[in-house]
Request: fold
Amino acid sequence: MKTAKFERKLCLLREYLFPTGCASCGQTLIHETEAWFGLCGDCAGSFPLSQEQRCVVCGRPLISEADICMNCRKSTQAEAAPAYDSMILLYPYIGKTQTLLKAYKFGKHRALAHFFSEKLFSSMSRFTASWIPVPPRTGKIKTAGWDQIEHIAQILEKQMRLPVLRCLKRLASKTQKALGKSERLTNLQGRILCVKNPPEEVIIFDDVFTTGSTMNVCARTLKDAGAKKVHGICLFYN
Ligand SMILES: [Zn+2]
Ligand SMILES: [Zn+2]
Reply:
């Protein structure tokens, strides 16, 4: 992996010239790996992946429940089961993990994409499926200036050599943030299209999971287009 080594050196050089510091604690980054992940060694080690059992519907850690969390138990009785087959959510969107996502999205800490990609990959390494990014809301890139999920997709594809398929497209719809769960679902239905045939098994990935509506519509769309198994993973959950 000569290229990866060279890229890491380049990352450190960039950090010397235009220092951003650790995205979590602000400390100066002095090693290649630190510059690569955008985090100092101590902070990089302070975001372990949870080994807890997860709710099979929403992916959140279970607290003394079996298979399905209380929240999903209540709601899945009234609603249909989600279209995805499994869901993993990595970090609660609070405190220092919230700082991390904000540093990535709104700050200069784009190196964090390497860190996020590693976490995504190690959580899903048992699958050999293709990775499909959840398409951004139309207009989002214009406002933010860049596509944060696509940046991660490029690392998964180019540096980690994983199959990435950009087959989902999103048509204009109202922003999901201000809507309730049922409104979120209807707001998105028919607004996400599959423009290429997906393989049988796929992994869809996104940054934040709130009600799961976006993931659900993406999974439904992929299944309608021929996917048999759809796994989901999100970096953060509300
Ligand atoms: Zn730090
Ligand atoms: Zn649940």
